[in-house]
């Protein structure tokens, strides 16, 4: 395997300078690990700029063609994008043992881990709006550039509460170039976030599928519960295809947590979701993909635009304009 990608973000060097090498960085602590890669904090020695160094072990990659293809796709997609709500890729450094991705450093955590620590496992609606608008902004940008993500979920959204709830969309292993009217056939993604067409294993619109997944994320953020669930995949897909969902009460959530043996204290008042937020969810959860709202149109929705309601964060977010399914099922 040999990687020849070079992404110049002008963070570290002028274009005339030599490509970056690992020796240009002071490599620090491990901040994450997966089946094929580790992520370490690193500092560019000359500029003192902090980055995340994602290192893929070539020995492991060589045994899995699917992992190789996923990495290629992620590099190719990220090398073409530049948006404040999409994780930035600065450069790829190819060494004998590893493929090293020099990436933007984000001090946040996944949305899944963020809401998991909340007492009610949901967020105030104004906070949901701040986070959701940034997700929509990033996806609208990708769609405008004919890129679909195809695996949007809580795990693949990072949020940094210490930086105005700045959001970063990550993990582009299933991403692909696709026009707004193009149909795709690869069955991929995470079951609870799949749209009706994907769940039927039929050709689907990637743009509309991303929007559906954003609706699942929003529903979880405002209610602490999945909109569609089932004991078996067939049951789950049947509910997704029917596009029937119910906004729960906190008592229902408490009963659900007790049934699963959770000791978390959930207050028993009603889960209040504004009519405006419910309207956004309604426009997203249209079983017929051609009737579903687009990411671009969502940016103009009154509820999504109402950033001033969370005034402490509004300046930061405006400047950014431009879980596994089993884990969710067992914890929400």
From TrEMBL:
Superkingdom of the source species: Eukaryota
Swiss-Prot/TrEMBL keywords: ATP-binding, Kinase, Nucleotide-binding, Serine/threonine-protein kinase, Transferase
Domain Protein kinase: 25-304
GO terms under cellular component: cytoplasm
Any single biological process term in GO: intracellular signal transduction
Keyword Cell inner membrane listed: no
Entry-linked Pfam families: Pkinase (PF00069)
Protein name: Protein kinase domain-containing protein
